[in-house]
Each structure stands twice: as C-alpha cells, then as structure tokens.
Amino acid sequence: MLYNIANTQSQPKIDTLSAFYREIGTNPDKLVSFKEFINLLNPSNNQTYNFNSLFEGMRKQNGWGDKTAALFVKSVYHINSGEYGENLKFWDDCPSKIDDNDKFFLPVDAVIIAIFKEINPNVKRDFKGINKFLKDEKNYSNLDIEIWDDLWFWGFITQKGSDDNRSFGWNDNKYWNLFETNKDAKEIEIIEEKANEFLNILLA
Q1: Which domain holds residue 38?
Q2: Which of 50, 166, 161 is nearest to 104 (CA)?
Q3: What is this structure's pTM?
Q4: N or C, which end of the chain has less CB nearby within 10 Å?
Q5: pLDDT band at 63 (very low <50, low <70, confident <90, very high)
C-alpha cells in the first residue's frame, strides 16, 4: 500500500523515496502495529497515537508530502475500520473510528483543486487552503472530510486536460483507466448519468 500510494504522485521522487523504503525495509518489526509504525515515523516520548500523528509522521518522510500522506491515512482508516471486511485489517491497534479530537485531512490534488475553483473561487486552492476552508469556515467534521474525498472520483472522470487547462465533461477514457471501476456496459451507463448529475450540481 505504501508503494502504490506513493506512486499516485504525478512525479514520484524515486531518489528521496528510496531512503524511506530502506528505513522500513530494515525495520520490519515497526510495521507490525499502528503504534510501532508511528514510533518509527516520529519518535517521541509524548507520542499520541491517532490519525493525525500518522499524518504528521508520513508528511515528514522523504518524497511524501501533505497530499500523499493524507491519502495514505485515509486508506489506513478505510481498511482498518472494518468497512471492507474484518479479514482485511492489518493493524489490531488502529482506531476503527475517527475521534472528534483527531484531525483528518482531504487529500488535495489537481482534480480536487479544479472542483474547488468552481465551488468557491475565493478559497486558496492548495492543500492547506482547502482543508482550512472545509474545517474552519464550514465546520465539517472528520467524518465529513472523509466523505468529501468521494469528490476525487467524480472529479477525475468528469475532467479533461491537465493543470489549469481543464474542462468539465464525462471522460470515459479516464473511467476505463481506473483499475477498480466496473466495466459492465449497463453500469457505465449509470455512472455516466450520475457523473452528469454531479456536473449539473457543480456547474450550476
């Protein structure tokens, strides 16, 4: 999962990421639990073991950064919450719920930035700006933030172009390039209808 998520970056920093992989590769005992992994990332005598401490530890690792760290934390939560089945959990001591006092961040990338350009052009369109808007100005909870991440899927399959040169419209090429998507023709028809519904709301 660490390798797959790091490679969601548009340009993974291979040379700097290798130092991180060496560290975890030579300390396999630190991968056996949530607490041990956090201790490896951010050794401290007064460590707090929650999703925010996992995020803070990951974002400090060479080649990671805010967006990729937030995506990793989201994936850890999804799998260890039991949402996808108890048999997929890999850390018994990982929280299965997001505590109100914890911090959970939206993984902000170019897709999400393009969406927020339409939602509110006054929001600073970067990781900190969008998360601050959602939490401080709109007062969304940690669980709400997790739900907001669904925007990435709907934004990805309804955007064309790259960087600031993006237009909105159903993009079946992107849909077909997502490994996890259902490739049944009837299902695609339903998804396309929902994607257009999403665009109507977004661009209204």
Answers
A1: 1-99
A2: 50
A3: 0.91
A4: C
A5: very high
Whether residue 76 sits in one domain with residue 137: no
For 111-153, the pLDDT digits (tens) are 999 999 999 999 999 999 999 999 999 999 998 998 899 999 9
User: 86 Cβ partners below 8 Å, 6+ apart?
Assistant: none
Cα separations (Å) of 33 from 29, 53, 88, 102?
8, 14, 14, 19
Rounded Cα distance between 187 and 157, Å, is 14
CA 2, CA 16: separation in Å to the nearest integer? 14
- Same domain for 117 and 67: no
Report which of 38, 21, 41 is spatially closest to residue 91, judged by C-alpha positions: 38
Spatial CB neighbours of 190, under 8 Å, sequence gap ≥ 6: none
Which of 34, 68, 99 delimits the end of a domain? 99
CA atoms within 13 A on the CB side of 131: 15
Cα dist. 178→49, 52, 64, 110 in Å? 33, 29, 22, 17
Dihedral pair phi/psi, residue 34, rounded to 5°: -55, -50
